Queue: 2 jobs
Job 1
Amino acid sequence: MMAQTPTILEKRQLSENVFCLRVSAPLIARERKAGQFILLSIDGEFGERIPLTIADADAEAGSITLIFQRVGMTTAKLASLNVGDTLAVLVGPLGQPTHIENVGTVVCVGGGIGVAPLYPIVQALKAAGNYVVTIIGARNKELMILEDEMRAQSDELIVCTDDGSYGRKALVTQPLKEVCERAEKPALAVAIGPPIMMKFCAETTRPYAVHTVVSLNTIMVDGTGMCGGCRVTVGGESKFVCVDGPEFDGHQVDFDGMMKRLQAYRNQERQAMTDHENHACNLDQAYRAATETK
Amino acid sequence: MSHPTRDELNARAVAKLAEIGDAGASLKPKERMAIPSQDMPAQDPDVRRNNTSEVATGYTEAQALLEAQRCLRCKNQPCVQGCPVAINIRDFVTAIADGDFQSAVNTIKQTSLLPAICGRVCPQETQCQAECTLGKSLKDPMQSVAIGRLERFVADWERERGTISVPEVKPATGKKVGVIGSGPAGLVVAADVRREGHEVTVFEAFHKFGGVMLYGIPEFRLPKEIVRREVETLKAMGVNLVPNFVVGRTRKLMDLLEKDGFDALFVGTGAGLPNFMNIEGENLVGVFSANEYLTRANLMRAYEKGRAATPIAHSRKVAVLGGGNVAMDAARTALRLGAEEVHLIYRRTEKEMPARVEEVEHAKEEGVQFHMLQNAKRILGDEHGLVTSIECLRYELGEPDASGRRRPVEVKGSEFEFEVDTVIVAIGNTSNPLIKQTTPGLETTKWGTLVADDNGQTTIPRVFAGGDIVLGAATVILAMGQGRRAAASINQLLAGE
């Protein structure tokens, strides 16, 4: 019941910029369901709170798995932490869990880092008795994650890369279209990845009237409905991703508006990254200077 | 407009006190009425709009002694009826006049637990000071005894001397009470229930304790150190404080009751779901709820550029929509973050504004431009989705509505547009839906607030509620009053077992 300091138990680098952390969080591990996310912050005083989807959890071990891409200052700092380091803030599980039921055939599409949040949904859909066709894609072979895990949980796995360096040379929308055209049309599509990928997945399934769920990762502060910074337009109405989502009907989401909102702090984020890198650089130089004089 | 400095105000008070001499206790009502009302010393507007330090610096001792002499010491004490928690105002003000500050604090604390906070943020002019006989006699409610400023003075006096005593806790009863939310209602319940010897655990969703007093009310109006001290007092009383815990998500409310051994729960989760106008352009980049803007600035410390990792808009021209305290806080925060122009847009007139009079005055002095009888119609943006301007409509006042305020009616065809890069929507909050969504059987009203009786009892046995989750968006003092009643109910329930 009492707060325990979330501690990093395991760290793996999945590709140049993608990291996997297993963190002690017994309460979250116990309660979490597929589709839910957490908010974390590295510094409790001046840190930024960022949302990350829970990629996996082990209730017995009391740990959750987070997979993230190093894109901004907070994820860069997170990537620099090691086993034994602690997080100042780890709160969750947040958001509505994925609605899981046996609908027959489902097609699950994950792009890039989006494969991580898709994984627990594939697990749950499979466990519910669905025939699961999973499509995972990345820009190149180096960026492909969780292939073995996905293969183990899917009835079919289609792997593709943008550059053809691994699996099929295709965007994920191509196999998705083919799956939609099968005699056994899927009853549900789940697409998670970069906003532009989710947008085109939704456009791909629309003519086939395949219900398509997308999971949105917007800018958040509290994650409990208090700030409204995460709002997106869905079916003409404002929805809060943190309490109404994170999953929505992909055919209703205003992806263009959402993508613009995701850019809100781009300049400040860039500046922060530059400052962060210069700082690291300076440290590096100072260190070298200090060791060279010895 | 130049303001007398704190030293000047103090010197005047000292001189007047000397004039009164030993006659203080025996002044006649007419003589008390003739004592000038004491202005609150404040940072100079041009200085303070560039810092985050507290604007009102508090009465000097001489000012407090003199202001307290203005009280007519009415037998019927109308001011007490105006106070949501019925503080024994006449007695504490008289104690100040007598120079017995400790006794004044003790009197306040019989009924109010957070005087340093309420003295700063209560809307006194619509509560105790609205009923004050002195204000009525002088035909100006702003000439009432400055009860709030006196309350703050003695609370600060006690804190600065380091003599805040930790309330006594009775022997352990073995009963467990959970408090959900650490805002004003929750803190008060924690203190009152802990005093009876029950084990108390406070669950807070954020990483710091204090709720709206931390994320919402800015430092320049309520220094966070004061909130921190109140939380420290709870810790010293043995209250368990659990941050980063969202009841409903991290643990279901009913699990706390049925599986984790809690004997009673208090829900004080506040009005945490911002309202928007539902107008065109509201999801453009540069449109914020006041909650988001203030949380970024206050809780996440975005005003400390270079230290805080949380970004905030670098605004040049800001429109704030709304006329309450939150709107004033957002407008004044925008100035402090470097905005060149801040326009406050309100669809009624200044008279109908729900904000505290002092906050309105302070905002004006700092340069916030007030636009009354106007309302936003749509927000316009560029091809990147960034706000470029706002289109407003003019309004006029019509017949009174259900709230008794005259209903604003739009003037057809009065649209006009002006350039802004940021729009902050401060038109109120509805109740946070998280606990309701995850707790079957917990009934809500059509406004989404929890159904609770006068004792704070909800529709689930052993679950009590108070503050904004029951009231809708209200005030710190009303939340505290509800917390005290709910705590009494909880203590009564547990005593009988």
Job 2
Amino acid sequence: MAAGIDIPTDPEWVDEVLLAGPDNQVCLVLGEPVDRAGLRRMVAARQQALTAAGLRAGGSVALCLPPSTAFITNLLAAWRIGARAALLDHRLTAFEVEQAIARLAPQYVVRAEHTSGGALRAFHEVQEKIVANPGGQPSETSHALVQLSSGSTGPSKAIGRTASDLIAEIDRYTAIGEGVPRGGERIVSLASMVHVLGLVGGLLYGLHAGARLVLPGRMTAEAILAAVAAGPEPTTLLGVPFHIELLAAVAEPPRLPQLTGMTTGGELVRAQVHDAFVDRYGIRLGNMYGMTELGVIATDLFGAHRPAILPAPGIQMRDDDGELHIAMENSPYVGLVDPARWSDGWLHTKDAGSVEPGTGLVRVRGRRDSQVSIGGLKVDLSEVEHTLAGLPGVEGAVVVYGKAIEAYVVLTPAASLDDVQAGLTERVAPYKRPRAWHVVERLPRTATGKLVRDQSVLSGAR
Amino acid sequence: MGNSEAREVGEAREAGEVGEAGQARGEVLAMLATYGERRPEEVPESVDSLELAWLIHQIEQRYGRPFDADDEALARMTTVGSVVEVLGELGFGGAG
């Protein structure tokens, strides 16, 4: 059953919606400032290279690049060709990238041949290379963007968004208005541009609105504040809750009159961290709720409704048996119809929550599945658990999250924990790996034989 | 060359003051514990990139001077042990 009909959008949308603007208007600062004329030139050059490699309208490419000018220009070039671009987080292991490429079957993969930049760098200098993937297939849908979301069992979900979907999200930011950066202002983005908040909320919206996107030199408190201080224009910080914690810990921040606000996506920070931040910087601290499937969904950009949020213009939400659902005409999933995730025009968020009838205010009360957020990156604990349990030497495993990801494992008599850890290191990205390991003789189970995930019971098994 | 220097510094510290190294480790654990309201004994040996960003700020506030380690030094700071080592090399921490 097809979820709906996608109407392809003319590739000229890239020029009209993203690249248009005065030649000398600086639009990106990843180290060196890049103006629109320069960006158009770089995108045209990458378009030529991708075309020369064989990429065509309706074709498919995967970008496996760290945040960089190369990432931006290859993405825009692929869209300008009319091809579908899949984004693979550069932190994924070779094993995960291989699996993703097998699943998505892109015709080409753009990888980093050389990359400068080390720990805590917010962006990298990248020399990219285009590699043909012999088993690759052209895109079967009209999606412009494909992103992977880890699945609890079986293959990961591929989430597709058309150019129209992306334009609709950009328009939604514009419609939210107050609290969203305007043309002539700056966005200092701390959110990864490979994921929806940094990608659409930072990069694409910034290009569209003429708000300059600035990435700090390093992801340290000092470098972030220095990036804010570097220009006189009104500046918004875009990040995840960790960045609030980091900046709230600066005892005496410099005076930053240009800093007008900070907006974060993801879970709420604790009230005392929120208050400490507002007290230190004297600016608005806003919260956004969004998903890879749809982008920005609901906001509280002035902390006026905290802990509740208000649906963005054009977004309709309801709670169904305690789960938040969002009206969405077509299923966002590529090659998968899962009624537990999308049915009859409603996206099932898997977030517990409620919608207040009179005001429409929404409360999000946490996940109903095993997904957790590590510094804004989504990790599905059951994916880690399945991978771990499938390794040689492991008889059983439970992966839980308390203050960090923790693994409880039962090993076969001949196995060593070092080997098991090395096996997992090959298969899952660093941010998904357990930080604490407990080797136990047996895993506690319920009377019906199900594994127990309650941490007080698990710690008793140590 | 950088590596042999690092080893020499490490050996010198081991030979000199075991207690001092323990103290430096305690300081690192205490600084890391302030992130996420943990107890020092709850801090895992591995240090992730969020914790590293947090730690750098804590180091600068504690010692009142910038922590200008290069990419190579930062890349090594992936465990509590290697953090203690790098801090020692750069003259942060302990009595020295």
